[in-house]
């Protein structure tokens, strides 16, 4: 199979982890006889520095021409600590999502058994947890009108959803639930927010079409609690952009670390495959970032954008085997990890590559 992949490393550890992700793609192409070609483009802080824009036109053109995009992360402490900055790295990410129509962000929370002791949650609560989040990605308070009033002393953001926007993500979630354990939890704040009442109405209206799927509604505050109390009660979860952002960072603790969570952003055009984590300034340049979220994002790309199931399974299998062999990056090392098994980003990548070359 011939595919053209755009690598967009972005900022901070984004560059460190996508290097490993790309090596995994190259290894898969060799092993299975595919022809993958690559290009690279700028986004975020590095793009602002080079061009003045967080999403240069050239990057967008390359994105539209690619069969899939391997994305790293954006963000820089300079902007995090300067609320007055008008141009920000994150604008590049949000504009990319809007321009490419990436309205569905799939965030699978899968716990590798070997990582039971890497989480701060008790193993008996965690064992068997397997959740698929559908986070709406191009609407909500992220894209609603925002403004400063009163000479800058008052500010507002608008949480806004249209029926159409809710319908398309909810249908995707129902379809996925059908292929899994047929349970769908919709998360909102319908006891307070009008946009959430519309959300709930839409879910209720669609539910009869999927009578084989058991639907429940939870408020965001209760859902945040239940996720930690009893993660196994969830199968597929569908929610809005902001609630989904927060709940999935929380859910990363079910999988052991932010460094383990991959995601697929899909919609009308080219799919973007990216870890859920950010540019992690605190560990940038130290060579300790966990590359497995990027590696698992490659598996999602192979499966979802290219339909290459065996190839995707080979990647996930390699991650599983490396963890079974006891290798860990620092973030997922547990009390039983032998010190010589704690690897940096590149060494962890090499372990995965060796298995894929075998
Ligand atoms: P973060 O996800 O970058 O880091 C949170 C914590 O998790 C940090 O302690 C970090 O060291 C750890 N961590 C994250 N990824 C890791 C990995 N692969 N291996 C080991 N440890 C890992 O979130 P933050 O600190 O809130 O934000 C830092 C910057 O990243 C900000 O500028 C923010 O806007 C940006 N951000 C970008 C994205 C994205 O590009 N998709 C996502 C989240 C945050
Ligand atoms: C994510 C990030 C982004 C978001 C930020 C950096 C804009 O946290 O991809 O989860 O909030 O969507
Ligand atoms: Mn986030």
Describe this structure in words.
The structure is a single chain. With 358 residues, this protein is an alpha/beta fold. The chain folds into two domains: 206 residues, Isopropylmalate Dehydrogenase; 136 residues, 3-Layer(aba) Sandwich (Isopropylmalate Dehydrogenase). It contains 13 helices and twelve strands. The strands form two sheets. A ten-stranded mixed sheet has the order 2-1-3-12-11-4-5-10-8-9, with helices on both faces. Strand 11 and strand 12 form a beta hairpin. The longest helix has 20 residues. It is globular. The site of manganese (II) ion has 3 residues, from helix 10. The site of nicotinamide-adenine-dinucleotide has 22 residues, from helix 1 and helix 5.
Number of helices: 13
Give start-end ranges of low-pLDDT stretches. none
Q: Which small-molecule species are bound to the chains here?
A: nicotinamide-adenine-dinucleotide, 3-isopropylmalic acid, manganese (II) ion
Along the chain, the helix and strand elements come as EHEHHEHHEHEEEHEHEHEHEEHHH
The CATH topology name of the largest domain reads Isopropylmalate Dehydrogenase
GO molecular function, one term: magnesium ion binding
Family: Belongs to the isocitrate and isopropylmalate dehydrogenases family. LeuB type 1 subfamily.
Function: Catalyzes the oxidation of 3-carboxy-2-hydroxy-4-methylpentanoate (3-isopropylmalate) to 3-carboxy-4-methyl-2-oxopentanoate. The product decarboxylates to 4-methyl-2 oxopentanoate.
Site (Important for catalysis): 142, 189
């Amino acid at each position: 199979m011939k595919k053209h992949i755009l690598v967009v490393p972005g900022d901070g550890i984004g560059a460190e982890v996508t290097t490993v992700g790309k090596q995994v793609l190259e290894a898969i192409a060799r092993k299975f006889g595919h022809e993958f070609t690559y290009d690279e483009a700028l986004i975020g802080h590095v793009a602002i520095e080079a061009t003045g824009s967080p999403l240069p036109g050239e990057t967008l053109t390359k994105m539209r021409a690619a069969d899939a995009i391997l994305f790293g992360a954006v963000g820089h402490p300079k902007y995090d600590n300067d609320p007055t900055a008008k141009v920000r790295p994150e604008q590049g990410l949000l504009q990319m999502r809007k321009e490419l129509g990436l309205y569905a962000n799939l965030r699978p929370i899968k716990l590798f058994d070997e990582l039971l002791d890497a989480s701060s949650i008790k193993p008996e609560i965690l064992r068997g947890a397997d959740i698929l989040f559908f986070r709406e990605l191009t609407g909500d308070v992220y894209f609603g009108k925002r403004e400063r009033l009163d000479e800058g002393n008052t500010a507002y953001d608008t949480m806004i959803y249209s029926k159409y926007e809710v319908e398309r993500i909810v249908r995707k979630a129902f379809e996925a639930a059908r292929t899994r354990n047929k349970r769908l939890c919709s998360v909102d704040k319908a006891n307070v927010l009008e946009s959430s009442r519309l959300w709930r109405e839409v879910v209720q209206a669609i539910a009869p079409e999927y009578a084989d799927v058991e639907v429940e509604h939870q408020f965001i505050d209760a859902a945040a609690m239940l996720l930690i109390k009893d993660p196994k009660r969830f199968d597929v979860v569908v929610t809005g952009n902001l609630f989904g952002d927060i709940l999935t960072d929380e859910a990363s603790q079910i999988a052991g670390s932010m460094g383990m969570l991959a995601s697929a952003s899909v919609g009308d055009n080219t799919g973007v495959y990216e870890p859920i984590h950010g540019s992690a300034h605190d560990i940038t340049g130290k060579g300790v970032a966990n590359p497995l979220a990027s590696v698992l994002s490659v598996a999602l790309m192979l499966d979802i954008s290219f339909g290459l199931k065996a190839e995707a399974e080979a990647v996930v299998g390699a991650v599983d085997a490396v963890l079974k062999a006891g290798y860990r990056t620092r973030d997922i090392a547990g009390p039983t990890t032998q010190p010589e098994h704690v690897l940096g980003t590149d060494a962890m990548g090499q372990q995965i590559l060796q298995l894929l070359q075998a």
